[in-house]
Amino acid sequence: SETETILAVEEISSSYGSGLVLEDVSLTVGKGEVVGLLGRNGAGKTTTLRSITGVIKPRSGKIEFRGQDITALSDHEISNLGISYVVEERAVFPDLTVEENLRMGGIKQPSGIMTIEEIFEWMPRLDERKELKASKLSGGEQQMLAIGRALRGKTELLLLDEPTEGLAPQIVEDVIDAIERIQEQDIPILVVEQNLNTIFEVADRVFILEQGRNVYEGTVAELRDDTETQQQYLGVG
Ligand code: ATP
């Protein structure tokens, strides 16, 4: 396609010690795209996000962000380039209010700051609850707060790890709305997700991993029609 490539992961292999967890994994995210990263538990999805963000260093392969080789950069340097990462654990400060949590999220990055008002505009549910302590929020609201915190630093690429895991259906819709609003701002998103319906709603393209390797790449429309792939690698259908 003619889409400008924002992120290019090229044949990275990563490990936590001896055995390889990722073997020659490749993927791309283009300008304005939402890309889904799928696969069963343990397939290597989180490890791929950790490799992109510099939390762990690939043993081989290359990661380019806007044409710059970031493979050897620290997690701090990578975050300063505008790659924001929302971990699966939904890191928020439970004893601080929603608004205080967002203020805390905005102090680190020199690349710029998104205003709290903008974030509230994208996530009205947070605006309604801005005086509440984060510990009083539902799981879904905490997820949105974690996304809001990640967006406080100027974001050129957003990485989300299972943003709808364990959430009630109405809250999943709120998270999907937030993802769509972020995409409308031309911020590309790479999202790890187990819920295929969410992927069908938000994503443009998908990559599937199995045992640390690429096994499928296609558009969402292609995956939707390909029940064999869904059964083989995602255990659904
Ligand atoms: P899940 O949905 O379960 O998080 P995943 O696709 O994100 O699955 P990863 O978390 O990337 O998979 O895990 C890939 C493999 O790496 C698994 O076999 C897992 O046990 C192993 N692994 C993950 N984190 C560590 C770690 N900190 N130390 C050692 N091994 C790890």
**Overall body shape:** globular
Q: Unreliable segments (pLDDT under 50, ≥5 consecutive)?
A: none
Calculate the mean pLDDT score and round it: 91
Q: What would you call the structural class?
A: alpha/beta
Strand tally: 10
Q: Count the helices. How many?
A: 10
- Helicity, as a percent range: 25-40%
Helix-strand pattern? EEEHEEHEHHHHEHEHEEHH
Kindly estimate the percentage of residues that lie in beta strands according to DSSP. Answer: 25-35%
Rg, Cα atoms, Å: 17 Å
- Main sheet specs: 6 strands, mixed
Read across the widest sheet, the strand sequence of neighbours is 6-7-8-3-9-10
Distance from N terminus to C terminus (CA atoms, Å) equals 30 Å
Small molecules bound in the structure, each named once: adenosine-5'-triphosphate
List keywords for this structure.
six-stranded mixed sheet, 237 residues, single chain, four-stranded antiparallel sheet, 10 strands, amino-acid transport, Branched-chain amino acid transport system ATP-binding protein, alpha/beta, ATP hydrolysis activity, binds adenosine-5'-triphosphate, nucleotide-binding
Write a structural description.
The protein is an alpha/beta fold. The chain is 35% helix and 26% strand. It has helices at 45-52, 75-80, 98-104, 116-122, 124-128, 139-152, 169-184, 196-202, 220-225, 227-234; strands at 5-15, 20-30, 34-38, 60-65, 68-69, 83-86, 157-161, 189-192, 205-210, 213-219. The chain has a 6-stranded mixed sheet, with helices on both faces. A hairpin with a 4-residue loop joins strand 1 and strand 2. Helix 3 (98-104) runs parallel beside helix 6 and helix 6 packs parallel to helix 7. The radius of gyration is 17 Å and the shape is globular. The two termini are 30 Å apart. The mean pLDDT is 91. One of its GO terms (molecular function) is ATP hydrolysis activity. Keywords: Amino-acid transport, ATP-binding, Nucleotide-binding, Transport. Residues 7-236 form the ABC transporter domain. Belongs to the ABC transporter superfamily.
